[in-house]
UniProtKB/TrEMBL annotation:
The lineage of its organism: Eukaryota, Metazoa, Chordata, Craniata, Vertebrata. It comes from Electrophorus electricus (Electric eel). It holds the Pfam family PGM_PMM_IV. This is Phosphoacetylglucosamine mutase. Residues 181-277, 291-429 form the Phosphoacetylglucosamine mutase AMG1 domain. Its cofactor is Mg(2+). InterPro entries: A-D-PHexomutase_a/b/a-I (IPR005844), A-D-PHexomutase_a/b/a-I/II/III (IPR016055), A-D-PHexomutase_C (IPR005843), A-D-PHexomutase_C_sf (IPR036900), A-D-PHexomutase_CS (IPR016066), AMG1_II (IPR049023), AMG1_III (IPR049022), PAGM (IPR016657). Substrate binds at E364, A365, N366, R492, P493, S494, G495, T496, R501.
Amino acid sequence: MAEFGEVSQKSTQHPKPKGLTLQYGTAGFRTTAKHLDHVMFRMGLLAALRSKKTKSTIGVMVTASHNPEDNGVKLIDPMGEMVTPAWEGYATQLANAEQEALCTVLKNIMETDAISMSETANVFVGRDTRPSSESLTKAVIDGVSCLGGHSQDYGLVTTPQLHYMVRCRNTHDCYGTATLQGYYEKLSKAFIELTKNGCCMLLVDGANGIGALKLREMEAFLKYELQVALFNDGSSGKLNHLCGADYVKVHQRAPEGMHMGPGERCCSFDGDADRIIYYYNDTAGRFRLLDGDKIATLISMSLKELLTQAGLNIQVAVVQTAYANGSATRYLKDVMKVTVCCTKTGVKHLHHAAQDFDIGVYFEANGHGTVLFSKEAEKQIRQLVKHSNANDEKKRAAKLLASTIDLINQATGDAISDMLVIEALLAIRGMSIQGWDTLYTDLPNRQLRVKVADRQVIDTTDAERHVVMPAGLQDAIDTLVKKYKQARAFVRPSGTEDIVRVYAEADTQEGADGLAYEVSLAVYHLAGGTGEEPKPLK
Ligand SMILES: CC(=O)N[C@H]1[C@@H](OP(=O)(O)O)O[C@H](CO)[C@@H](O)[C@@H]1O
Ligand SMILES: [Mg+2]
């Protein structure tokens, strides 16, 4: 295989540990950095092939998001979305090919997908702040160049910034300019347009990661219309350690190192700034969390109202996963009367489902999400802005909608962009965080993790809400759920960690905790639990 001569030669500098197998999971590969060099090299190869295949620029982001220790990699498709599932399979095959089989696997992919070597390849590369990310990025670039591809290294960027760059490049700058300055200018202009009436103040937990760095860079562009008090900015603390969106959501508690006054609006980014969670302490000093479901509610409600004011008949739908709080789903369906649909966990599934609507608002409960506008919806809104006969109220609403479109990163969920959208919408509505919080009350809930010998023994259906295998587990869950009021529970194998996740909700926290514990026990006994048996929560 003469055409792969350079691959054979270079791959020896990025050797695969024998016997190591990894899988492209919910959001790419994740494992300890010392096992990732060969994966990065091979993802460089794959990105080059994907670029040749799609005749477009492809993105490779080096990050493990909210994981504290590991590193990882995600591939970005031409419109800035996650790589298509068929190629996730190729990614897994390539990552696991033993050294001597690498070129054969490459050749097979090229033959199956009819990829011509003579096509050019362009790959955008970005990385988070983990110390290992720099050398892993070099391995990606090595892989790209082995197939004659050209890499553009954006250095330190948030994951959504790299998605944005890819989308800009492949839409020939119609979406924006593929530079950090272009990103800051576009979003800042839209934000300032939306919040002409005054500045917003906010406490931000940067998870000691890349989001903190990039928010600092952006402050000047925002002309201080947004006053940010930035905590966990990476100057001393450890990435994702006792802070960040995942920590806050899972522990339902404020991050360390943040000084919150009562009623002050606060938010946390995750380690690569593609998730955001809001919270505050109420007057009684209780911690109150506003998660992705509440963000989706605020955004969809505001868009619906603006569309009505603009006199536009455009449908708004919300896409959630099984982790969405039952109260949120009920509020959206019964009170707001919006279409709600449920997909499997993982942004790629939500993103895909949201594309079916005029306006698809999608959020995972953990704060990962964005809004997608169909071409037609965007056209109608922009036409109304230009329409000279529209009355003032309609014009005002259309302008606000148009600026909201500009402020949203439609390539993927983006903590910085989502934060600006939320701040702008709250300002326009004159709504406090307390007012937003009281739209509905979350059902108490609990998430637990169970270690099993092989998490793949659990197979689910109905957007992961029902277990098909192992036999008996779903019946056991159904029986347990009946013991509690307003209860719901489900289990699924994680796609990012070697565990099974358990989710339960009920009318009281004790109920949610009790149900989550009982379901964990059922998983432990029926799905091959390892280590210590789960214990009741204190
Ligand atoms: C319950 C939960 O929060 N799961 C997360 C987590 O996936 P798991 O497959 O559950 O490990 O990481 C994903 C990637 O960041 C994110 O998309 C998803 O929502
Ligand atoms: Mg993330």
